[in-house]
Specification:
With 389 residues, the chain is an alpha/beta fold. Helices cover 38% and strands 17% of the residues. Bound molecules: pyridoxal-5'-phosphate.
Length: 389
């Protein structure tokens, strides 16, 4: 079996993460008794907050190099995080800009707010290969533009967007910025230091290597005060009041938290910090280059995207007449797991000109080997079943 669907989720947890989760389930973390349980969950969450805060460069100015881990909020995934961010930030009459590559996790909540008459919304047009000229932002900003939302990299094309340049322009006009780092956290360096980005939404179960159903938000200083709670409930703090507490992270983390998921994140992100994101990026970029080179040797293959590993995440979309059938054959004949169709991103497929049929998406991760890449290329060569339109 070859797993080539890392853009959807990480299929196996590392040994270190599994060991920690086993110990947790065996009760090693709970042996101080039930009254201590809540404290233990808090200690696990704090460890995860510190690791994620460090990874994303959530700075605690004026203390150079220190991390304000309380601005890291855990949720049940990037979708919940993005919903919390847009609903918590946006007010009646606000104008929002978002790219034509957004995942439905962003596109649907924004579209819902637009349909409910709360916001005005414009999609920023990207080129068919996913590239974006940052100067376009300047032309699209209006008097009431409040938020710029950008995916860091397309989950369909792999193309990395020039978010730093775009966010700089947005800030010149006082526009808040929200980064969807679902595809890049843990695989591409990200820094919130200097508050270039007001909010980063991350998925815990992709590049961060944690369990499914994990993710969250890292809040810049400005956003931490501007964002209102979107989900409310018990926090175990300020319980005499019917209002959500002001303090972080309680303000945005009501209810009993997913402690085992958060523990998986703590253990996995610590591993990533130890390995170094730059090293991971190097490995994944080399895999993308190897795969793209391999595809060049195959007749009739058309790839949607930037075709430049330096500008891409390890996500490659191949165009053909029947993506579902090709995916099925790759699995049945070669044991290769891919993802076909629209990848929850009709906007990106419309941008790429691959809507409504979609593509067959190959995506790689930390665990992918060169031998697997070569085997996938060979499978595509020998199957010869991928005619381009
Ligand atoms: C770009 C992007 N944003 C958001 C999401 C949603 O992430 P989650 O599954 O953690 O809710 C995904 C998942 O595929 C994604 O690729």
């Amino acid at each position: 079996m070859i797993y080539a669907n890392y853009a959807a989720t990480t299929h196996i947890l590392s040994n270190a993460v599994v060991t920690e989760l086993r110990e947790y389930l065996d009760g090693a973390h709970l042996n101080a008794g039930r009254n201590f349980e809540g404290l233990e969950a808090g200690a696990i969450a704090l460890r995860a907050r510190r690791a994620v805060g460090k990874l994303l460069g959530v700075s605690a100015a004026p203390v150079a190099g220190a991390v304000d881990s309380l601005r890291v909020i855990f949720t049940g995934g990037a979708t919940q995080a993005l919903n919390m961010a847009v609903n918590g930030l946006l007010r009646q009459g606000d104008h929002v800009l978002a790219t034509s590559l957004e995942h439905n996790a962003t596109a649907r909540p924004l579209e819902l707010l637009r349909k409910n008459g709360v916001i005005e919304l414009d999609w920023i047009p990207c080129a068919a290969d996913g590239r974006l000229d940052p100067e376009i932002i300047r032309k699209l900003i209006k008097k009431n533009t409040r938020l710029l939302v950008m995916t860091h990299a397309s989950n369909v094309l792999g193309t990395i967007l020039p978010v730093r340049e775009c966010f700089k322009i947005a800030h010149e006009y006082g526009v808040l910025t929200l980064l969807d780092a679902a595809q890049t956290a843990g695989a591409l360096p990200i820094t919130m230091a200097g508050d270039e980005c007001d909010i980063v939404a991350f998925a815990g179960h992709k590049g961060l290597g944690g369990l499914a159903g994990t993710g969250g938000l890292a809040l810049g200083k400005n956003a931490a005060t501007l964002m209102r709670p979107w989900i409310s409930g018990g926090t175990g703090s300020v319980s005499h009041s019917l209002d959500m507490p002001e303090c972080l992270p309680d303000r945005f983390e009501p209810g009993t938290q997913n402690t085992i998921g958060i523990l998986s994140l703590a253990a996995s992100v610590e591993e990533i910090l130890h390995a170094g994101v730059e090293k991971i990026r190097e490995h994944e970029q080399a895999l993308t280059a190897r795969f793209l080179n391999g595809l060049q040797t195959i007749k009739n293959i058309r790839v949607a995207g930037a075709l430049d590993p330096a500008l891409s995440m390890p996500v490659v979309s191949v165009v053909n007449h029947d993506p579902a059938e090709v995916s099925r054959r790759l699995f049945d004949d070669h044991g290769i797991i891919t993802r076909s169709g629209l990848h929850c991103s009709p906007l990106a497929h419309k941008t790429a000109g691959t809507f409504p049929a979609g593509t067959v998406r190959f995506s790689f991760g930390r665990g992918t080997t060169e031998a697997e890449i070569d085997a996938i290329v060979q499978a595509l060569e020998t199957s010869g079943q991928i005619p381009a339109p």
